[in-house]
Design brief:
8 helices, mainly alpha
């Protein structure tokens, strides 16, 4: 699973980065936003606006904090470090790339929520991918592992699609966010797994 997530992350990030320099893909990005904006409905509007709040950094930190408290009761300190390093590292990397690339957001005419910073990559998609990957890794040996994996995938996919629906991001921004989240979280998992193995600790 780790190698699969790493490969998917690299593919997603590569496609999105290449897409920044290809007019045809940029046209696809813009056309997607325009098409979705013309097919919105009140039901999806309400759901995606709520998801925008739930997927932001404050909510992600609260969810991660609650998860770390639960893990601390079982003295799973390596998993706690895994969650903390995954969230903080990916958030820092995402915002550095936003500043460096400085891609404009989709036109305000189509946007449904207030946004901050540049468009590329989607921070919400990064956070969703990190939380999703964290759940996959932490519960990979659980008897209901498949259910946790399905829920994690559902969350990160829906979060990314909601950002496009709200015209907060282009599709390639979301793809980049997923890629960064998958790559960074897998990298942290590999590092901590090696550390835990050397100290004869389970992870």
């Amino acid at each position: 699973m780790p190698f699969l997530l790493l490969i998917l992350g690299c593919i997603g990030l590569s496609i999105s980065c290449i897409g920044l320099h290809i007019p045809l893909i940029h046209q696809f990005d813009t056309s997607t936003i325009v098409w979705i904006a013309s097919h919105r409905n009140a039901y999806l509007n309400a759901i995606t606006v709520v998801m925008s709040v739930l997927g932001g950094l404050p909510s992600t930190l609260i969810i991660s904090g609650i998860g770390c408290l639960i893990l601390s009761k079982s003295k799973k300190y390596t998993e706690i470090w895994f969650v903390l390093l995954s969230i903080t590292g990916s958030a820092a990397l995402g915002w550095l790339l936003k500043y460096a690339i400085d891609r404009p957001r989709p036109d305000e005419v189509y946007r449904m929520v207030e946004t901050y910073g540049a468009s590329f990559p989607s921070a919400h998609s990064i956070y969703a991918a990190v939380l999703g990957c964290s759940v996959m890794f932490i519960f990979r040996r659980h008897k209901q592992a498949k259910l946790f994996i399905m829920l994690a995938c559902f969350w990160l996919v829906c979060m990314g699609l909601s950002r496009i629906y709200l015209a907060a991001h282009y599709p390639t921004d979301v793809l980049a966010g997923w890629g960064i989240g998958l790559i960074w979280t897998t990298f942290v998992w590999f590092v901590l797994s090696h550390y835990a193995l050397k100290r004869n600790k389970l992870f």
